[in-house]
C-alpha cells in the first residue's frame, strides 16, 4: 500500500513537470522572439489553475510528446517503486563491510593485504640499526 501511494505521488509530480515542459515548448514555438517573462508567468499560472483542462487539451489534440512522456513517466514511476528496497543491506548492517563508525578491531587480512610485509619488532629494530651504521655523526 505504501509503495502504491509513493507511486502515485511520484507519477503526479513528474506529470506536472511534463505538462509545464510541454506548455513552455508550445509557448516558445508560438511566440518565438516575442517571448517575455510575463507571457511565461501567465502560461504557468494557467497550467496551475486549470491542470485538468490542460491535460484534456493535450489528449484531445493527441499531442505525441505528451503521450510519449506520460507513458515513460508511468514506466519510470513503477520501476522506481519496484527497485526500491525496504530492508537495509550492505554497509548499513553488514559487519565485514563496515566503514565509517565501525568500532571493531581490524582483521589481519585487512591490514596485510599484500602491500606490506609483516616483520617482528626485533627484525625491524635490527634493520633500523643496520641502516644507521654507515652515517656520519654530526
Distance between the termini: 80 Å
Shape: elongated
- Report the strand count: 0
Give the biggest beta sheet: none
Beta-strand residue fraction: under 5%
Order of helices and strands: HHHHHH
Task: Return the structural class.
Answer: mainly alpha
Radius of gyration: 32 Å
Number of alpha- plus pi-helical segments? 6
| Uncertain stretches of 5 or more adjacent residues | none
Helix content: 55-70%
Q: Overall mean pLDDT score? A: 83
Question: Can I get a quick summary?
Answer:
The chain has 138 residues and is an all-alpha fold. It contains 6 helices and no strands.
Account of the 3D structure:
This protein has about 140 residues and is an all-alpha fold. About 65% of the residues lie in helices and about 0% in strands. It has six helices and no strands. Helix 1 (about 1-30) packs antiparallel against helix 2 (about 35-50) and helix 1 packs antiparallel against helix 4. It is elongated, with a radius of gyration of 32 Å. The chain starts with a helix and ends in a 6-residue tail after the last helix.
Per-chain topology:
Elements: H1 2-31, H2 37-49, H3 51-60, H4 64-83, H5 108-111, H6 121-132
Helix pairs in contact: 1-2, 1-4
Amino acid at each position: 500500500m505504501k509503495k502504491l501511494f509513493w507511486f502515485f505521488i511520484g507519477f503526479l509530480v513528474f506529470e506536472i513537470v511534463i505538462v509545464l515542459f510541454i506548455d513552455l515548448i508550445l509557448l516558445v514555438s508560438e511566440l518565438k522572439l516575442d517571448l517575455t517573462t510575463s507571457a511565461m508567468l501567465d502560461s504557468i499560472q494557467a497550467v496551475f489553475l486549470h491542470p485538468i483542462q490542460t491535460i484534456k487539451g493535450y489528449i484531445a489534440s493527441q499531442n505525441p510528446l505528451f503521450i510519449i512522456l506520460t507513458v515513460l513517466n508511468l514506466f519510470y514511476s513503477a520501476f522506481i517503486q519496484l527497485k526500491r528496497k525496504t530492508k537495509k543491506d550492505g554497509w548499513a548492517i553488514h559487519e565485514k563491510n563496515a566503514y565509517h563508525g565501525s568500532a571493531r578491531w581490524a582483521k589481519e587480512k585487512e591490514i596485510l593485504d599484500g602491500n606490506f610485509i609483516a616483520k617482528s619488532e626485533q627484525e625491524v629494530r635490527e634493520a633500523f640499526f643496520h641502516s644507521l651504521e654507515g652515517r656520519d655523526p654530526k
